[in-house]
Amino acid sequence: MVRVQPASPLALRGTLVSFAGDPFVVGPDEAVRHESDGLVICRDGLIEAAGPYHDLRRELPPDIPIADYSGCIISAGFIDAHVHYVQTGVIASPGERLLDWVNDYVYPSEEAFEDEAHARAVAAFFCDTLLRSGTTTACIYCAVYPQSADALFAEAETRNMRVIAGKCMMDRNVPEALRDTAKTGYDQSRALIERWHGKGRLLYAITPRWAGSSTPAQLEAAGALWRAYPQLHVQTHIAETEEEIEFIAKLFPERKDFLDVYEHFGLVGRRTVLGHAIWFSESEFCRCHERDASIAHCPTSNLFLGSGLFRLSCAKAKARPIHVGIGTDIGAGTSFSQLASLNAAYKIAALN
Ligand code: GUN
Ligand code: ZN
Q: Which ligand is nearest to the CA of 102?
């Protein structure tokens, strides 16, 4: 098992990369800090000092050994803003676009998470793989079953990881075995919040999967839950493909666009993480900014499913900038590594 907090004290030598600001605001030269030969000194899980190796070396007590990672990058842990642990087994399932892909591969895989032993085994593998990829914090979708969230939180807790996760709420347009109801979805989420939220580094995210798989009654219940626990995050999917947008327009004809569905049910605010937003209109970008909500851009997933090219520079427009995080979106995404995600994000931005 990989653990986040290593033995103490600890000194690490390597190339240090850190960020002193948002490159979209202050520019990359000011934002990125780079120390080609650096030293980081940690004690009790906290960084005590970081800087040029030759300066800090003198301050280091001689009994502390230096782990030499010269040639490697040492940086803060990555944050995965959108990932489905219950889709670990479907990575690289080929040949479909979003809605068929979810029906044919994802739902059958998620049904297996009713079995808590299976959930624990996959959660353990998933957490170890995130850590091995340099990811120490993640916003995670579990299956509809509360025990699938229990399994993930338990495995994250033993590894001292920062996890923001929730059981999916979904009560229509999914197989019968994967449905909760407006009431059970609310009650089960509430019990999970009471059990896990704020325990160590664990946080709960209210998780209506997407507007296409929740009735208005369930979205109403999710909004009520957020009003009861306003400190929580909310995570959901939005505007991932044009087909999906047409489907939502049919389900919610009285709403002016996709974001308006979530706005109507009180689900868009400071700690809302909206997955994808590839096909956002200018009005949706503006309202997302006004409400201080965030977007999780999932580049390897968007390329794998052919969903579209997210307009990062548009989302970060100086007049109405939006918080954008990067998600792997495993299992539509193809790599646990955020370095692979950033690589794909660069190419998507270049194509735009
Ligand atoms: N929209 C609703 N559910 C899903 C999912 O599991 N994966 C992706 N990529 N989009 C979704
Ligand atoms: Zn997703």
A: 1
Q: Output the CA 334–ligand 1 centroid distance in Å.
A: 14
Q: Dump pLDDT digits (tens) for 114-125.
A: 999 999 999 999
Q: Could you tell which of 82, 85, 90, 98 is best to mutate to test the pocket of ligand 1, judged by most ligand atoms within 8 Å of the CB? A: 98
Task: Give the β-pairing of 32-43 and 46-52.
Answer: antiparallel
Residue located nearest, by CA, to atom 5 of ligand 1:
102
Rounded Cα–Cα distance for residues 192 and 48 (Å): 35
pLDDT for the residue 63: 84
What residue owns the CA closest to ligand 1's atom 9? 332
Residue of 99, 102, 113, 248 to test ligand 1 pocket, by largest number of atoms within 8 Å of CB: 102
Closest-lying ligand to the alpha carbon of 87?
A: 1
* Cα dihedral sign, 159-208-80-293: negative
Ligand 1 centroid from CA 219, angstroms = 17
Helix extents (H) in 197-311 = 216-228, 242-251, 258-264, 282-290, 299-304
pLDDT digits (tens, 9 = 90+) for 256-305: 999 999 999 999 999 999 999 999 999 999 999 999 999 999 999 999 99
Specify the pLDDT at position 62.
Answer: 84
List, for the chain, all residue ranges whose pLDDT scores fall below the cut of 70: 2-7
Q: What pLDDT score does 5 carry?
A: 60
* pLDDT at residue number 53: 96
| CA pair distance 298, 249, nearest whole angstrom | 23
102 lines ligand 1 (CB under 6 A): yes
The answer to whether 61 and 52 have CB atoms below 8 angstroms apart is: no
Q: Is residue 291 within 8 Å of 268, Cβ to Cβ? A: yes
**Distance of alpha carbon 333 from alpha carbon 306, whole angstroms:** 11
Pocket test of ligand 1: the residue of 87, 106, 178, 247 to mutate, having most ligand atoms within 8 Å of its CB, is 106
Cα(284)–Cα(211) distance, integer angstroms = 16
Whether 172 and 134 have beta carbons less than 8 Å apart is answered as: no
